[in-house]
Amino acid sequence: MPQPPKRATVHDIAAAAGVSRGTVSRVLNGGYVSAEARAAIEAAILEVGYVPNTAARTLKMRRSQAVGFVALEPHSLFLDDPNIGAIMLGANAALSLADHQMVSLVVESARDMERVGRYLSGGFVDGAIVVSARTHDPIIRVISDLRLPAAFVGHPPDLERTIPYVGIDNQGSARAVTARLAATGRRRIGMIAAALDRDSGIDRLAGFRAALGATFDPELVAEVPHYDYGSGVKGMRLLLERDPAIDGVFAASDAIAAGALETLREAGRTVPGDVGLVGFDDSTWAVRTQPQLSTVHQPAKEIGAVAAQLILRQLSGEQPTPAGQLLPTPVIWRDSA
Amino acid sequence: MPQPPKRATVHDIAAAAGVSRGTVSRVLNGGYVSAEARAAIEAAILEVGYVPNTAARTLKMRRSQAVGFVALEPHSLFLDDPNIGAIMLGANAALSLADHQMVSLVVESARDMERVGRYLSGGFVDGAIVVSARTHDPIIRVISDLRLPAAFVGHPPDLERTIPYVGIDNQGSARAVTARLAATGRRRIGMIAAALDRDSGIDRLAGFRAALGATFDPELVAEVPHYDYGSGVKGMRLLLERDPAIDGVFAASDAIAAGALETLREAGRTVPGDVGLVGFDDSTWAVRTQPQLSTVHQPAKEIGAVAAQLILRQLSGEQPTPAGQLLPTPVIWRDSA
DNA sequence: TTGAAAGCGATACCAT
DNA sequence: ATGGTATCGCTTTCAA
């Protein structure tokens, strides 16, 4: 095992400049140091080609200036969920402003889960943003055992009431779009409900049900596993089978809506003529379909930014307010309903 | 600034078990230690709730067991480029097997660029996978100055001939599909060429041109900035304007092809009847359009895996072979051409 | 203002 | 087999 090449240290600078390491550290960080000493040291830094060793700094300071970003989606998150990327970008921008490095960690296997747990606990990060955690995810334990500053995106698992979170009002928005579908004269309104193992999926279904009240018919809910196009195709077929007279559909995501739209077209139904269709996410899907989708806007970047603030605030000493905050989700009415 | 809570150390374990730190380290890592000492230490570990401090370990070992993943795409990479995600997943899987943590770093601003440079040089990672680097990207300097083990995805910048890389034969595949378009009787073949500021874009155009030889007509090349849907729409409009009789189109990506397809439909052209259309990437786009796209398959996961191997090999002492390797890209013939 | 020295947490060498 | 000690690179008292 070859060692990496030896690199210049504070010690080397001190030797080259003829001062002590303390003085070098003072010019590096800031503190009282004479003009001549400063000049000599700055020259020495260039001369020896100094590169600070952040790992050593982290050890001493107990601060890495890095924040982990962990998405616990069920597989290949980056491939189809458009929100994750935007949330990452939002979080990164906010952390960047505060001079913190965001490092994102992929969790695909049990092995990953364990390794990431070790990574988070090893001092490589000062905090962690966790997306789509479920109660039994081991990461949760690591975070709460270590009291690692953290923020959840989406409802936190019930067990964990001490970690702040940020999310959207899934239930409220679902209720709003469903009500509008009803208000525009749709009588047989169905839903393609996905991801019922996580809060976003559960809440969207709850909102749909609440909006319909007594007229809610469980037959008109097609349950599918994921928020993707293929699930939309499957879900819509199911719905058409169960009730050919269906005239309104709330799809739990834009990708699902796109799949449903294609299926409706194949079945000879027009949208919004025969069937009113609403999606969720306001992703690129929504404007690429024909007709363009009415949908619920998710402020993904802001969500990321708020999550970052939640971490930053804890790092600067504030108590983690166990409460969460829900960001507004305007409904965008386009052409599909 | 509150310090993180104090955590148990090897020292604490040693005290609790009544042995020296050396012995504790031996049970932690492996070495000669008596059964009774081992038992006492293992009990002590649980008792004090020991969590290893990886930062300290990194400092001592000069190894972090982490590898950086840096994508230098022009903005919001995760949002529309389907390949990046798959490459990441492939790299992560390979690194995971070798018990290395992949940490991916977003670069969106100049500030990000600088901070990521510091991060890479600070000892937080043992190596770095770099996607889509351009010659002037500061990261390149950091890596080569530090001799940080690295691997490029895509052609490395010309200046840098010492870093191994992995990619695909963009030029060869472009030539193959274009030739086929010609072989099936298309006479007026155009291309929507994107990302001409990077090798993938340049090479695909070069392949197209080579295949056509003397019949190449620069008028039939529409240049667009990105590999996205919107660019496909714009590019196709341009092409139709320049030559309404166009009967073959090679799109530099599936997203572009999808945009072109929609535009052709709006212009009243049938595919593949009036116009033969080929994409690139074999992404989900390709199977969602109607008709499904003929396209070039990119083995994104393998690319990630090979990049990871390239790093791992250097970490275990092999000299970085400056050569690169190109992975095969089968052409998938579906319905659009 | 500066230097000397202690210490962050872990590992490895050298005696014993 | 085990304990003591030096060391990784950096920051931070404490004196001078």
List the helices and strands and how they pair.
The structure is a homodimer of 337-residue chains.
Chain A: H1 10-17, H2 21-29, H3 35-48, H4 54-61, E1 66-71, H5 77-80, H6 82-97, E2 101-106, H7 110-121, E3 127-131, H8 138-146, E4 150-153, E5 165-168, H9 170-183, E6 189-194, H10 199-212, E7 221-224, H11 229-242, E8 248-251, H12 254-266, E9 276-278, H13 284-288, E10 295-296, H14 300-315, E11 324-327, E12 331-332
Parallel strand pairs in A: 1-2, 1-3, 3-4, 4-5, 5-11, 6-7, 6-8, 8-9
Antiparallel strand pairs in A: 10-12
Helix pairs in contact in A: 1-2, 1-3, 6-14, 7-8, 9-10, 11-12
The structure holds a DNA duplex (16 and 16 nucleotides).
What average pLDDT do the residues of chain A reach? 92
Largest sheet of chain A: 6 strands, parallel
Principal-axis shape of chain A: elongated
Order of helices and strands of chain A: HHHHEHHEHEHEEHEHEHEHEHEHEE
Order of strands in the sheet with the most strands of chain A? 2-1-3-4-5-11
Number of helices of chain A: 14
Task: Give the low-confidence spans of chain A.
Answer: none
Largest interface: A-B, 64 and 64 residues
Percentage of helical residues of chain A? 40-55%
Please state the CA-atom Rg of chain A, rounded to the nearest Å.
26 Å
Report how far apart the termini of chain A are. 64 Å
Strand content of chain A: 5-15%
The number of strands of chain A is: 12
Oligomer: homodimer
* Class per helix and strand makeup of chain A: alpha/beta
What does this structure look like?
The structure is a homodimer of 337-residue chains. Helix content of chain A is 46%, strand content 15%. The N and C termini of chain A lie far apart (64 Å). Chain A has a six-stranded parallel beta sheet, with helices on both faces. In chain A, strand 3 (127-131), helix 8 (138-146) and strand 4 (150-153) form a beta-alpha-beta unit. Chain A has 337 residues and is of the alpha/beta class. Chain A contains 14 helices and twelve strands. The relative contact order of chain A is 0.12. Chains A and B meet through helix 4, helix 5, helix 6, strand 2 and helix 7 of A and helix 4, helix 5, helix 6, strand 2 and helix 7 of B. Chain B binds a DNA duplex (16 and 16 nucleotides) through helix 2 and helix 4.
